[in-house]
């Protein structure tokens, strides 16, 4: 066994150039895939955290039916205090939730006393909102970081378009759920940067102001945004929350609450999916490269060593051992290629991080791509390459093991 | 009991339409601890015969017993097993493994074929290498030694498993006559010391005087049996 390993390795070293060529081909493939995987997942994760942390949250809960008409921000599909109690109880009982932020969402008119335009507003508890969307304070271009009462945060596009500056007084007019109109003066507390994704161009005000403006007798919440302590547990937490809420049905027996992850809420999810699909195909290409190159080199090796194989067989080496010998050679080609590939990849990612590749996405500029090598991916790719190398050697090795020694010995 | 007993062995090769009768009803016996050669011109059937005795090929008809076993119809695996346990091979082109040293080449059959304890293994290899006078070359690779030296290593390799029968198909064909005599001499010495039977083929009449029994093969038939002078090693 150990002896076979020694023979295999020496045979690989005997054809140094060919071994080097094949394993560098594998190494280049591994490097390409790992760099692509780590860059694309860095891009994906950066975008997801930008989207979830600046506005969306990881999970949102609405009243059933709200999502269907979210474009009009209906006030008739809000959650009553009674429902909110139930929901908070479920949130507190479900594991993995770090923070949640109730929001009143509504559409209103924004007036600077000369012109009027539309605006979408979130009424929030400032501290809760910051806990769910930690990037929100960072979006403030000028002004307060934290929302105060009687103040409004407006998106910069609106500020520009309406020629409104920090500290100006403006009026928000909104229609409440019964159809009556109310207006209220606000001071511009901050101008915030727009971000990609739904709600990226909304304004913010204190939830008490929203309640007053909309003349709510009791607080009615449009949406609860939730932040998880571990983003990777997204689907588990959602399932936990769903099961905690499964009892809560209305009179018709339909569920009251609608629990959605960011994936249902942001169109970027489709981009993320595309990236995953591309990654999958790139891995397939790697498999093809490894398969073809290892198979090719093994077929050559076996053809050149027919007489040696014949000798081994004549001396009494069992077919299984001959098979094994060539499988080990394939295995080491894969291992060697993988190791070199991982070294290349480390250098390449180090270089990308050192150079500082930045990109723009939508209105967000200067996002820095910082690929990191993930152990899981390294193990996965190494595993795939090594297994495929052994599989590629299997057919030629099987042929070698089935050779008749007399025919093999006669071969010149 | 005879070590080899062949009765009416025939071997027919089929080449498309053509049937080549390589052996035509060959019968002979070889006693344990003897030194036998088959002599004949190229194409007379020497390789075919040794392949049959060596369990590398099956006879078309006839019976063949080697070391007490009927080997005319073994499976691939059984044949490999039988070869590993009972037979040693020496080839015309030496056929050492190029990636293994002299020592490792001799060691190979022990590791791959038989399980022998490490200490005994080492002792056996070293003593055989000493007998074939290759001990000082034991760490060299085959491409660093001469043809005669390679064939001596091959002799050691054939003997290391304590085979009862060593088959050598034209072991001297690629050697100059001086070296050829030396190799035959070593084989003979081993036969005397270890009681191993050597059966070898050659087309070279000059070297067979060393041999105890000489069979002459012509067109797939045994056409003569003679006694040689049975060695002259010093
Ligand atoms: N595999 C084979 N297929 C067809 N004919 C063969 C084969 N092996 C040997 N022969 C024929 O059998 C005869 C004996 O060959 P061989 O045993 O190799 O003789 P030698 O070793 O004495 O030169 C020759 O005519 C040869 O052409
Ligand atoms: Mg021949």
Count up the helices of chain A.
14
What count of domains describes the coordinates of chain A?
Answer: 2
- The outline of chain A comes out as elongated
What is the H-and-E element order of chain A?
HHEHEEHHEEHEEEHEHEHHHHEEHH
- Number of helices in the DSSP assignment of chain B: 6
Q: How many beta-strand runs of chain B?
A: 10
What class would the helix/strand composition of chain A place it in?
Answer: alpha+beta
Order of helices and strands of chain B: EEEHEEHEHHHEHEEE
- As a percent range, the share of helical residues of chain B equals 25-40%
Count of spatially separate domains of chain B: 1
Provide the residue-averaged pLDDT of chain A: 90
State the CATH topology of chain B.
Rossmann fold
**Stretches of chain A where pLDDT falls below 50 for ≥5 residues?**
none
Please give a structural write-up.
- The complex is a heterodimer of chains A (412) and B (234).
- With 412 residues, chain A is α+β, with helices and mostly antiparallel strands.
- Chain A contains 14 helices and twelve strands.
- In chain A, 55% of the residues lie in helices and 20% in strands.
- The longest helix of chain A has 41 residues, at 16-56.
- The two termini of chain A are 29 Å apart.
- Chain B has a single domain (4-227), classed as P-loop containing nucleotide triphosphate hydrolases (Rossmann fold, 3-Layer(aba) Sandwich).
- Helices cover 32% and strands 28% of the residues of chain B.
- Chain B is built from six helices and ten strands, in the order βββαββαβαααβαβββ.
- In chain B, the strands form two sheets. A six-stranded mixed beta sheet of chain B has the order 6-7-8-3-9-10, with helices on both faces. A four-stranded antiparallel beta sheet of chain B has the order 2-1-4-5, with helices on one face.
- In chain B, strand 1 and strand 2 (18-30) form a beta hairpin.
- In chain B, helix 3 (102-112) packs parallel to helix 5, helix 4 (118-131) packs across helix 5 (147-159) and helix 5 runs parallel beside helix 6.
- Chain B is globular.
- The complex binds adenosine-5'-diphosphate and magnesium ion (MG).
- Residues 13, 15, 20, 22, 40, 42-48 of chain B line the site of adenosine-5'-diphosphate.
């Amino acid at each position: 066994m150990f002896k076979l390993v020694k023979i295999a390795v020496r045979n690989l070293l005997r054809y140094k150039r060919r071994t080097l060529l094949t394993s560098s081909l594998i190494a280049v493939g591994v490097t390409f895939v790992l760099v692509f995987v780590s860059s694309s997942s860095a891009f994906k994760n950066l975008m997801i955290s930008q989207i979830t942390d600046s506005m969306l949250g990881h999970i949102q809960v609405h009243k059933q039916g709200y999502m269907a008409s979210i474009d009009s921000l209906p006030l008739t599909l809000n959650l009553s205090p009674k429902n909110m109690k139930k929901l908070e109880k479920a949130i507190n009982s479900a594991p993995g939730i770090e923070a949640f932020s109730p929001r009143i969402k509504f559409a209103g008119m924004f007036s600077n006393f000369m012109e009027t335009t539309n605006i979408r507003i979130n009424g929030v508890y400032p501290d809760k909102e910051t806990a769910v969307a930690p990037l929100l304070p960072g979006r403030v271009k000028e002004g307060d970081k934290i929302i105060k009462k009687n103040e409004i945060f407006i998106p910069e596009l609106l500020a520009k378009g309406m020629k409104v500056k920090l500290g100006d007084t403006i009026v928000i007019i909104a229609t409440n759920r019964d159809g009556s109109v109310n207006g209220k003066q606000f001071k511009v507390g901050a101008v915030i940067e727009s971000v990609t994704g739904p709600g990226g161009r909304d304004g913010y005000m204190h939830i008490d102001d929203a309640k007053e403006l909309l003349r709510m007798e009791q607080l009615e919440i449009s949406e609860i945004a939730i932040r998880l302590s571990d983003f990777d547990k997204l689907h588990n937490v959602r399932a936990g929350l769903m099961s905690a809420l499964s009892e809560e049905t209305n009179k018709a027996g339909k569920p009251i609450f609608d629990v959605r992850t960011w994936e249902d809420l942001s169109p970027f999810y489709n981009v993320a999916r595309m990236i995953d699909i591309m990654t999958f195909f790139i891995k397939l290409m790697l498999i093809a490269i490894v398969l073809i190159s290892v198979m090719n080199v093994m077929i050559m090796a076996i053809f050149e060593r027919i007489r040696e194989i014949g000798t081994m067989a004549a001396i009494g080496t069992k077919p299984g051992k001959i098979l094994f010998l060539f499988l080990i050679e394939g295995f080491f080609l894969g291992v060697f290629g993988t190791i070199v590939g991982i070294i290349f990849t480390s250098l390449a990612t180090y270089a990308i991080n050192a150079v500082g590749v930045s990109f723009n996405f939508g209105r967000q500029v200067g996002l820095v791509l910082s690929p990191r090598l993930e152990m899981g991916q390294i193990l996965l790719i190494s595993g795939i390459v090594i297994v495929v190398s052994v599989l590629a050697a299997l057919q030629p090795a099987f042929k070698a093991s089935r050779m008749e020694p007399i025919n093999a010995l006669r071969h010149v | 009991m005879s070590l080899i007993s062949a009765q009416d062995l025939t071997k027919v090769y089929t080449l498309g339409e053509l049937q080549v009768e390589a052996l035509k009803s060959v019968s002979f016996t070889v006693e344990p601890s003897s030194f036998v050669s088959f002599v004949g011109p190229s194409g007379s059937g020497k390789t075919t015969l040794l392949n049959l005795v060596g369990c590398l090929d099956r006879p078309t008809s006839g019976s063949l017993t080697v070391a007490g076993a009927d080997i005319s119809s073994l499976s691939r695996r059984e044949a490999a097993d039988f070869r590993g346990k009972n037979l040693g091979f020496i080839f015309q082109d030496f056929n050492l493994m190029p990636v293994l040293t002299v020592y490792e080449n001799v060691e190979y059959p022990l590791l791959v074929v038989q399980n022998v304890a490490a200490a005994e293994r080492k002792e056996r290899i070293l003593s055989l290498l000493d007998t074939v006078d290759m001990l000082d070359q034991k760490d060299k690779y085959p491409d660093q030694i001469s043809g005669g030296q390679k064939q001596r290593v091959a002799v050691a390799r054939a003997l290391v498993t304590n085979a009862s029968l060593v088959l050598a198909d034209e072991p001297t064909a690629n050697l100059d006559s001086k070296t050829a005599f030396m190799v035959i001499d070593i084989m003979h010495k081993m036969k005397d010391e270890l009681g191993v039977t050597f059966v070898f083929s050659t087309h070279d009449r000059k070297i067979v005087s060393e041999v105890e029994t000489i069979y002459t093969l012509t067109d797939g038939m045994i056409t003569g049996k003679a006694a040689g002078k049975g060695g002259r090693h010093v």
